[in-house]
Amino acid sequence: MRHHLLALGLLAGVANAEPVQLEELQLQREFPVTQMPSGHLSGLAMCGEALWAVSDRDDDRLYQLHQEDDLLRAEAETFVAPEPPESTLPWGLRMRNWAAGLVRGGKLDFEGLSCDTQGNRYLISETRAAVLQVASNGSTEWLNLPGAVVRQARASGMLLHFNQGFEGIAVDPAGERLWLAAEQRRRGLAVLHRRGSSWRCTGGCVLTSEGGDEPSPAALGGQMAARDFSGLAYFGEKLFTLERQSHRICRRALGDGVAELCWSFADEALREPRRYAQDYGMAEALWIDKEGAWIGLDNGEQPRGDGEQRPIVWRFAAPRGGWSQRS
User: Fold this and answer.
1) Which of 88, 107, 188, 254 lies in the 20 to 30 Å Cα band around 323?
2) 91 by DSSP, 3-state: which?
3) Which pLDDT score, from 0 to 100, does residue 326 have?
4) Which domains does the chain have, with CATH numbers?
5) What's residue 327's pLDDT?
6) What is the Cα–Cα distance from 80 to 57, expressed in whole angstroms?
């Protein structure tokens, strides 16, 4: 295992600046996922004592993941989603999303998963820019989100392009605060607060929005690629973003979404047996707890260097000094 020196500061005077050198996280376990026929693992959440997953190809089920030796066996829990609320996305995007759902399946395109301490699971639909709540008893409802969240996100440059919508979701344990992560071109974070049976933007919906490119890890050639968010998690009054192309996790402030500290998982992810032929990252699901991080891969059924084609879940140890170490 190679460790880099840890950069403990941000780039001076630059908004949304990020640490430039990253500590490498240590991989503890690797689990292929079995009995998940649709593949395309796109979200992870630890709800109580159980690890759950969602696929962006399934509109009617979650998967509880049971550890069996070196595998995670997926057990489906089905639900019936009601008709989604009227989309506030423009007509052109709605039509492209509709056509893609017909071709590939998964018309709701669930791209993230979170949960609260009451056992509610929350799924973000990329195609609808809407959040479905699945209660512990299996009942479902779409959250009453304000139209302002999409309007403000688009005004900030997010949600403008096909297949680059909301990609991650995080909920605080009390189920009172909700964060959404837009994927790329521009990537960004939005926040909402629950008020009774509805949700509101308090002081604006958008926390942060940024565009631009950055280099991929050296093992992928260091080519420039769009900054992205592919997963989002809440832990210890901080947000954690999964940044697929740069193969890192960043801790971000709740108030403004600015990166405080980042950690890399590139060394383990890009070892030859784990490498995919594609020149982009596969990590799409994130859950953070005190002891470490769960990262799930949506490999699109593509084989990696050792021939493994099933979805993969990695368990990384928490960094030295823990997730709350000072920047």
Assistant:
1) 188
2) helix
3) 84
4) 25-317 (2.120.10)
5) 67
6) 15
> Can you list the residues of the chain whose pLDDT is less than 50?
1-19
Residue 280: its pLDDT value, please? Answer: 80
Residue 10: how many other CB atoms lie within 10 Å: 18
Tell me the C-alpha distance between 116 and 174, whole Å: 6
Q: Mention every residue, 6+ apart, whose C-beta is less than 8 A from residue 253.
A: 238, 239, 260
H or E element at residue 273: none
Question: Concatenated DSSP letters for 27-80?
Answer: EEEEEEEES-TT--EEEEEEETTEEEEEETT-SSEEEEEEEETTEEEEEEEE--
What are the φ and ψ backbone dihedral angles of 36, each rounded to 5 degrees?
-120, 80
Where do runs of H (alpha helix) occur along 190-247?
none
Contact residues for 306 (Cβ-Cβ < 8 A; gap 6+): 273, 274
Q: For residue 46, what pLDDT is reported?
A: 97
Encoded amino acid at 28, one letter? Q
Decide if 35 contacts 55 (C-beta within 8 A). Answer: no
CB 28 within 8 A of CB 316: yes
Q: 187 vs 16, 156, 280, CA distance in Å?
A: 12, 10, 17
Tell me: the pLDDT tens digits for 134-192?
Answer: 999 999 999 999 999 999 999 999 999 877 889 999 999 999 999 999 998 899 999 99
Cβ contacts of residue 86 below 8 Å, gap of 6+?
Answer: none
Give the C-alpha separation, 44 to 47, whole Å. 10
Per-residue model confidence (pLDDT) at position 19: 44
Structure tokens at 217: 């890890």
Per the listing, tokens 């879940």 go with 313
